[in-house]
Design goal:
mainly alpha; 8 helices
Length: about 280
């Protein structure tokens, strides 16, 4: 199942990348043709901009299909490992043939030891440790990428403004030739900025809730129930269904550092559980 959801997330990311690349290339092409062909300016600039917006929505639906299957497969993996009931309100069970075919196509190496060993930590603390292990990592990467995208958006606006100043056109012609074709690229970047900031905030909030449950369990004031574990899992599933992508090159640049921090955090929690008599 790990191999399957890894492959399905890759499929979704490929569709997303193709969508963004197509939107940007077609937007540039529409602007160039609209500027070079005054007689076709309205048709190419206006029509091209509308076509790009429609294309963005259509391909986005295909990407969502892959992401939904990937998140459902990862949810099945988690519920099996954590021994939690399935919540059909948020996801349907992934078909076995989808899992098998996706796993067969997986060529990566990150399909073992998905969660760091929690040793002899008792339930529910072993599950809480695994659930919490990726939140801080993910939130940090989303914030870094969101601010980088803010820079991209500012640069895009600057380029449009510079080109608009350089060409000898009326305000209406600039709107049709440059502004309308750039709407779809700005939509893509804007949506990703918003999604990454929201994902970071949500992951930080859920991480705080998990840590609060952990602390109450350690001091004996409240032991997390299976229903509460399922509630945390629901939030994890909903995040995965809408989680924005962080580029592989950026993830790879911080991967070693982030993984070390994550493993250290798990080790700290296991040590706490042992000191408080919740392990062994």
């Amino acid at each position: 199942m790990v191999a399957a959801f890894a492959r399905l997330y890759t499929d979704a990311k490929i569709v997303f990348t193709l969508r963004v690349a197509a939107v940007f290339m077609l937007a540039i092409a529409s602007a160039v043709v609209a500027l070079a062909k005054p007689g076709l300016r309205t048709m190419i600039g206006g029509g091209g901009g509308i076509f790009l917006l429609v294309l963005s929505f259509v391909i986005g639906s295909i990407e969502k299909w892959f992401r939904t299957r990937a998140s459902a497969t990862q949810e099945k993996f988690d519920t099996d490992v954590f021994q939690l009931p399935w919540n059909s309100l948020h996801s349907d069970h992934p078909p076995q043939h989808v899992i098998s075919k996706a796993a067969a196509r997986y060529k990566g190496t990150r399909d073992k030891d998905w969660y760091t060993d929690t040793g002899m930590t008792h339930r529910p603390f072993d599950v809480l440790t695994c659930q919490a292990s990726s939140f801080g990592w993910g939130a940090t990467m989303h914030l870094i990428w969101a601010w980088m995208l803010v820079g991209v958006a500012v640069a895009m606006a600057g380029i449009v403004a510079i080109v608009g100043c350089l060409v000898d056109l009326s305000g209406g012609d600039i709107f049709v030739s440059l502004i309308i074709p750039s709407l779809a690229p700005f939509k893509e970047v804007g949506e990703q900025i918003k999604a990454n900031f929201e994902a970071a905030r949500t992951k930080e909030a859920v991480e705080r809730k998990v840590n609060d449950m952990w602390a109450k369990g350690m001091d004996g004031s409240h032991v997390t129930t299976d229903e509460e574990l399922r509630s945390i899992q629901d939030k994890i599933l909903l995040l995965r269904q809408s989680n924005p992508y962080v580029p592989d090159w950026l993830d790879d640049a911080f991967h070693e550092k982030n993984e070390a921090a994550m493993r250290s955090g798990v080790a700290d929690k296991v040590a706490q559980a042992e000191r408080h008599g919740h392990a062994g």
